[in-house]
Amino acid sequence: MSISQRIKERIDIVDFISSYVRLTRSGKNYIGLCPFHNDHNPSFTVSPEKQLFYCFGCKEGGDVIKFLMKIEHLSYREALAQLGRRVGIEVDDTNDESSGGIRELYKINDLVTKYFNYILTETQYGKIPREYLAKRGIKKETIDTFKLGYAMASWNSLQKFLEKKGVNLETQEILGLIINDKETGKSYDRFRDRIIFPIIDITGHTVGFGGRVLDDSLPKYVNTPETPVFRKGHILYGLYQTRDEIMKKDQAIVVEGYMDCISLYQAGIKNVVASMGTSFTREQGLALKRIAKDIVIAFDTDTAGDLAVIRGANVLREVGCNVRIARWTVFKDPDEFIRNEGPIVFLDIINRAKSFLDYMLELLINRYDITSLEGRIQFFQEFFPLLRSEPRVSVQRAYLDKVATLGKIPPELLYREFDLFYTSRKKEFEVTSISALSWMQREDMDVLREKLERQLLFFALNDIKFLNIIKEIFQPDIFTIKEYREIYERLLQWNFEEGGFEVQDDNLSSVIAKINISEQIELSENNLNETINRLNGIILQKKREELIRELELAEKSGEVEKAKELATKIQNLTREIFSIGERRMSVNG
Ligand SMILES: [Zn+2]
């Protein structure tokens, strides 16, 4: 048995993936939201039986090694070594040719994180920032958990440190660690005299940094710009540290700033992440939806905060999250709140957070006078689209009743107004489904052929006995799908005495996972025969259609000899099919 198979035998793919994606059982498989694309409905499937994953959205798939490679940006050897360490099987990954590139950038960022942390915790330069953090109530333990650091008040200390470590200026600039002054041609450190908040992705690597001043000078924050490893809207601050707690509570509290996140965490409210700025993105929403049902927004209380709340809540709702909104007065942000009132009062605010619809209803009722006709129309225009996105009719009705009471409007009238919004949308939807249907029918034949090819390959992949039957009958060119043909060719060449069939090719391993997970046909000889018959039927039909067309042409143009020839071909073809059937029966014994 190969080393990869020995390792895979000791790791359950469902357990392993569960620490990255919330999985729920669905029949004999598990499903969840795909971590590799913007997934709205659970398209990501994990099969405990086959020990494979496959996403029906982005078509990513494979075994546990492939999953780890993709999610942690590792090479095959690195992923194998990491899994090996879990189960006590040693894998030599020192001669890994494929290191470099992106992973090199992660390594440098991780090194910089250690450097800033060392300056803060171990040197005299860190004395003032240490005092500053202590004054804000940040404990040593919290500094360790979030790997906080300090960038010295110097123009080039980081630059010098990295040069000594062999990191050239170009790479430092790519990572946004230094800034190149175009006029003088000189480079200087981006982060100077600032508390450093490393931004860590879910795999534990630092992708960027936030730097905060120690006094009131501006700008208050400096952040890493977009780099090959840091895409601002794609990451949530703190998620690496808080993911387990969020999954356990099935709830995520979203705050705006680094300090809000850290304060809450330190106070024992550990299911928290920070959006890092006011624009909450779909990617961030999806990252949360994958791991928690209940999302509570707890943004700053200024007016900019109000707008950010609505935008953020809308984004979260669009990706299908259940959003609630926590609001309070007096304190400007969660950090200040916690430091003044402590966690119990804050948790009470979180527990009483309003649903998005309640929040919006209250806000719009205050904004418009719905007892007047004009105010009512404006209110409908803003509130109905929100209400329409609520899937439960009973909930929609309950809100309409509330509005009816508040605005002294007859409920029947309100229902009718709302239904008008709804029916106009429904018609649009019906038109598109009809055109989609006719397209399906045209493609029917090809779809059926692909299905049969897939079934055939499914048999070949899952039992050597079936493979032996199939290879007696079909050459690789039977497969019209290129990937199927390649997989079949590899199967034919595989030496099964050395171990089970395996493919390292990125694309082919996804296709194999898809076939193994999505194919429902039971692996029996009767079903294999049926598949072969139907596939042959389709091939015959297609060939015969072609020959008949040729025959018609030949007859039209009076080519008697050619017409005779074609008629014979059609007969031979039929005979060939029969002989295939006989051969198959003799193989079956
Ligand atoms: Zn996907």
CATH topology of the domain at 439-588: DNAb Helicase, Chain A
Which kinds of small molecule does this entry bind, naming each only once?
zinc ion
How big is the Rg? Answer: 31 Å
* Strand tally: 16
**Side-by-side strand order of the widest sheet:** 1-2-3-4-5
Label the overall shape.
Answer: globular
Terminal-residue CA separation? 32 Å
The average pLDDT value, as a whole number, equals 85
- Class inferred from helices and paired strands: alpha+beta
Taking pLDDT < 50 over at least 5 consecutive residues as the criterion, the unreliable ranges are: 426-443, 580-589
Fraction of residues in H or I helices: 55-70%
Q: What is the overall number of helices?
A: 24
Q: What would you say the CATH architecture of the domain at 439-588 is?
A: Orthogonal Bundle
Major beta sheet summary: 5 strands, antiparallel
The CATH class name of the domain at 439-588 reads Mainly Alpha
Determine the strand fraction and express it as a percent band: 5-15%
Description:
57% of the residues lie in helices and 10% in strands. The protein has 589 residues and is α+β, with helices and mostly antiparallel strands. Among the domains are: 85 residues, Alpha-Beta Complex (DNA Primase, Chain A), CATH 3.90.580.10; 131 residues, DNA primase DNAg catalytic core, N-terminal domain (Alpha-Beta Complex); 150 residues, DNAb Helicase, Chain A. Strands 1-2-3-4-5 form a five-stranded antiparallel sheet. Helix 3 packs across helix 4 and helix 19 crosses helix 23. The chain is globular. It starts with a helix and ends with a helix.
